[in-house]
Amino acid sequence: MNKVFKVFLDNISSSSYVPAEVLAGYRIIFGSLLLCYFLPSWSWLKAVPPAFFDPHILSFAYLTDSQLDNFIYLGADIVIICFLVMLTIGLWTRWVLIGIFLLCAIFYSYSYSFGKIDHHTSILIFTFLLMAFTNCGSHFALLKDKSVNKDVQKTALVVISVSICFGFFTAGISKFIRWIDFDLNTSGFLSWFNTSYYLGEKEKYFLMDYVFKMPVLLLESMDYMAAIYEISGFLFLVRGKKYWLIFLFISGVFHFSTLLLLNIDFTLTLLVYGIFSISPLFKRFNKKDSLTIKNLQYFFYAIIAVGILKIGCALFEIDSSILNYHSVSSKSKIYINLCLTLLYLMVSGYILLQSKKIFVNQSK
Predict the structure, then answer these.
(1) What's this model's pTM, rounded to 2 decimal places?
(2) CA nearest 44: which of 14, 17, 74?
(3) pLDDT tens profile 59-99
């Protein structure tokens, strides 16, 4: 039994392995996207009527009797901007990641005290903490972190990959039980669609209006494919690295289809998948180790400038789409996210096709 469990863990560790240098390269992409586009913000909470404040008993927000003062939310916005600049350019990366985790864990509990929880944000929050136990700050950083033991990094990456699979499994098991019913008179997909279509945004995008023209058999098959796919993540992860990349690519296709057909957006989770499915691109285009801090200095200057600009917008309460993710209009956001999802599919698909060459080089 112990041998079987060890083989199981070894397979997961092998599938989720990412070299420190590659992980550090992805840290720059990760931090840049969060700062420039997916920037968290909590100052919008000041406009929410206090009567709607109803925190969950297990949240940080439950410890306070009401919402926080406005200047505290503003301070959190400024701190998160500083942290993301530091993460991208590599200043005290490990401590910054822990700081981002604590900040998001505390202040998102206030965001989620009004009846809605975004589960794709939750996995990102825990990813910040787990990334702190890797060596993503030991390369391409202005102030390099002290390297942790390789086993510690492997464990952190294993936990991230298992969390992705567990998240899909918990979402998929109920679908598997209820949606696979061999009954053409019911449709799990349409239950989601009707909620999104009639209770969601007034303006419908992409292929949403075409769902009404879909054949019943296609809708039924979509139920089965979605349910089976969501509960199968662990099988792909245990099977090997290439199969894990296939699962993450399918996940991108799944999110792309939900965006097209349901206008439901999970683009933020692609940042977490990218740790495994996008990061190898860095090694592919840095074969001769030509990328150095000197080569990155102008990019880092630009990141610092973006951070200063966003802090200025926050301080002077400039309501602009350049400020944070909440400031982007729904229409702009859904088109940008569609492009980002397509980009993810192209890059992860390329890496999947080139996986044999890329991972042979990584293992040398």
Answers:
(1) 0.93
(2) 74
(3) 888 888 788 888 999 999 999 999 999 999 999 999 999 99
pLDDT bucket at 318, cuts 50 / 70 / 90:
confident
Can you tell me the distance from the alpha carbon of 358 to that of 285, in angstroms, rounded to the nearest whole number?
10
3-state secondary structure of 134: coil
Tokens 């279509």 belong to: 197
Tell me the C-alpha distance between 120 and 328, whole Å: 18
What residue has token string 């139920």?
Answer: 223
* Nearest alpha-carbon partner for 354 in 289, 288, 280: 280
pLDDT at 361 over 70: no
CB 38 within 8 A of CB 268: yes
Structure tokens at 58: 């297990």
Question: How many CB atoms are closer than 10 A to CB 63?
Answer: 9
The answer to whether the CB of 124 falls within 8 A of the CB of 272 is: yes
**Contacts within 8 Å (CB) and 24+ apart, 237-241:** 237/11, 237/12, 237/15, 237/16, 237/161, 237/162, 237/165, 238/8, 238/11, 238/12, 238/15, 239/11, 239/15, 240/11, 240/14, 240/15, 241/14, 241/15, 241/17, 241/355, 241/359
